[in-house]
Amino acid sequence: MKTVRAVIVFVLFLLVGSGVQLWAQQEPQQEEKQAKPEKQAKPEKQAKPEQQQPQQERGREQNQQQQERVQQEQQREHNQQQQQQRMQEQRQQQNQQQQERAQQENQQNQQQQERLQQQRQQQLNQQQQERIQQQSQRNQAQQERQQQLNRQQQQLAQQQWQQQQQLHEQQERLSQQRQQELIQQQQQRLVEYRQRLDEQQRRLQEQTSILQQQRRMAQYRFQEEYLEHLRDQERRLREERHDYDNDPYFYTAPVYRYNRGGAYYEINQYGADSLRQAVNYGYEEGFRAGAADREDGWRPDYRESYAFQDATYGYNGYYVDPEDYRYYFREGFRRGYEDGYSDQYQYGYYSNGSYGVLGNVLSLILNLQSLR
Asked: What is the mean pLDDT of residues 125-154?
């Protein structure tokens, strides 16, 4: 199309040029014609210029018309080019709009697929959690049945043993001098223990502040409860008025011996019960401490717990030496921490809101040897 227009413009220019050249050739010829008659007759000199003027005007009009036609043709070509450009821009806009619509549709389809996938994944996760929860409930029920059976066996064995010890106590009784020695030892232990309680509470408050800084909130709550237990113990010790004369511990003969640190110690039934209590209290506090570290996402380390370092929870100051109580408390604490951190009951059990050590584990820890 552009080539055709160019040819037309070129032809028009040729026509205009030919007309100008023809007019230029006619003008000298006319001058010659005018010159020749001058020699023959003078009146014709004035007639010829008058005839040439209309011809020149017609030539100028033709040239002007040709130029106008060329300009019009150029204007038409310019208009056509603009129209084509506008049409091309419209087509580009339409293509771009189609691409945008296609892209939006693809995004919508992708989002819908992602939502469906998320829903399917949530359903799968929920089903898996339900299966895990059901399995956990079955395991817990089985553990509770086993723990209940162990407790029943332990209670039966303890009742039988207590009955035997009561018979031995009726047959044997400590001398008055030995009773006074035990009472004096007990009073001295109480004084030292009360002093230590004050110091331990101050240390526990300092460590509690460190836990807040570390953002270990579960362990912080556990140690707050432990601190409150120590305060309760201190209040009971201050308020208590012990009746040493009527306490059977001070006139009951030893019936067991146990080994700690390579040395043997003898205790009666009341002292043995205190050591058992130390192991069970230690297991309970250890389980709570381990569960708190697991909840905080903290690395397992039972030695870092202040309850393990203190190891006096549940100690009332009577019947056994504080160091003996702390040793067996820590033995229970270590095992309870391991169960609490792993969220299982390998060494103990949980029943009716309290924790305890399994009978066979307790016997292995204490290793009490009968003196009879």
From this structure: 74
Distance CA 247, CA 100 (A): 93
What amino acid is encoded at 179 in this protein?
Answer: Q
Q: Given a cut of 90, is residue 186 above it in pLDDT? A: no
- Number of helices and strands in the chain (H, E): 8, 5
Report the chain's terminal Cα–Cα distance, integer Å.
127
* Predicted pLDDT at 37: 47
Q: How far apart are CA 355 and CA 352, in angstroms?
A: 9
> Coil, strand, or helix at residue 156?
helix
The residues facing 257 across adjacent strands are 266, 369
Copy the structure tokens of residue 48: 């010829």
Helical spans, DSSP H, in 297-358:
306-310, 322-342
Residue type, 153: Q
Q: Look up the pTM and report it.
A: 0.51
Give the integer Cα–Cα distance in Å for 150 and 15.
Answer: 125
- State how far the Cα of 285 lies from the Cα of 340, in Å rounded to an integer: 10
279: confidence class by pLDDT, cuts 50, 70, 90: very high
Residue 124 has pLDDT above 70, yes or no: yes
User: What 3-state DSSP class applies to 356?
Assistant: strand
> 225-229 contacts: CB < 8 A, separation 24 or more?
225/288, 226/285, 226/306, 226/307, 226/310, 226/313, 227/201, 229/313
Instruction: Let me know: does 302 contact 289? Beta carbons within 8 Å.
Output: yes
